[in-house]
Amino acid sequence: MWLMTHQGLNDESTWARGQAWGIYGFTIAYRETGNPIFLEATLKMLGYDILHTPEDLVPYWDYDLSNPKPSDKDTSAAAIKAAGLLELSNLPGVPKNIRDKTERYAKKTLESLLKNYLASNEKTGVLTNAIGNRPAEGEIGVSIIYSDYYFLKALSLLKNKRQ
Asked: Does the reported pTM lie above 0.90?
């Protein structure tokens, strides 16, 4: 099979937002079908993320960057990942130890976003430092609607969990 990326560093690299979409999407597929293959896929993708994400839990736009700069951070990947993990932590069929670990990781990710990446001008959006398409030099270090959506979705999931 021939694979090609339009958003990642190269065809063999791991694009962070794509990884986050996978974590979120396989979680929803598991929620809707109960098929354990989707839970397994989510956990494998999460394992990769944990091993390759910087200390502040906001990944660089591609995990395979050799010399990443702070401007290479992608809050959209972190927000999507956090929402997916909070969805996962709410699923009754998931073992409790996995639910607890994914909830803690999601909370730490959200704390980092709240502490370090809130937009300073409410007219631009909620989060800053999202990357739309780095290879095309489009939307770099800005607020992006889907980043804000998944960030707010994750906060909502967390709030509803407490009630």
From this structure: yes
